[in-house]
Amino acid sequence: MTTDFSVRPARPADAGSLAALRWTFKQEDHEGRPPSERSAPLYQRLGFQPPEELLELPLGT
Q: What pTM did the predictor assign?
């Protein structure tokens, strides 16, 4: 294992890689099930509905 590395703040260009890593970690946390699967019934009982479209903020705006 190498110990020769540096830590820097994430940049907009890193977003895709960071999102993929986060998704992988979430899948491991939930044993392969989508992370919102367990909480969805609670939100539905409270009147929330799945969004018709994904809201996103393009980086660099």
A: 0.40
Write the CA distances from 54 to 5, 50, 51, 57, integer angstroms: 36, 10, 7, 10
Encode pLDDT of 9-44 as tens digits.
999 898 888 888 877 776 666 565 555 767 778 778
Which residues have C-beta within 8 Å of that of residue 59, sequence separation ≥ 6?
Answer: 12, 15
Residues 6+ positions from 33 with CB-CB distance below 8 Å: 27
Placement of tokens 């799945």 in the chain: 50
